[in-house]
Amino acid sequence: MLLPATAQQKSFVEEMLPHMDSLYNYALWLTNEHNAANDLIQDTYLKAYRFFDKYEKGTNARAWLFRIMKNSYINDYRKKTREPDNLEFDESEFSYINTMHSSRDTTDIRELLYRNLLDDDISGALADLPENFRTAIVLRDIEGLTYEELAEFFDIPIGTVRSRLHRARKALGEKLVGYARERGYDVEEFIESLD
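Given the sequence above, the corresponding structure tokens read:
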């Protein structure tokens, strides 16, 4: 027998669940693995529900969820780096298993779309950026967060968000000059703007 949902549960579902797809994309970007992304989403929503009484209704739910996710990911990463490795097989076996896992076929349309979203050159250039730059570009230019949402996510003023994005885009552009030339784009004006 199902129990009727409380007003808090209804409010949570209405305000938080519409952002799950954007959160999944960012989780997949962070973890680079489908199951780990799902675990991160689950952890994020559990924490959001647990602390939903701290959320101010009508404020930016998406930015609040992204901040919870970022903090969860960082905390989990720190925890894993402090724990000793408990692997009982050698690195070559791990490498083989990891390669087999990453090359597996999938029917998950979101994972297929995400994998093919960016060229390897673009993904590599983006991965080479400092974490704050990479996160700003992914959340703004791929996930479509507003400057206000980014300011809340990073807990910095909007002017700093704009500056960070400008520097991130410029750094990414510098890394992709060769890529753009290979595809026939005129990059001379961009190169002159760097001087």
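Residues 87-117 have pLDDT under 50 and may be disordered. Try to locate this feature in the token string yourself.
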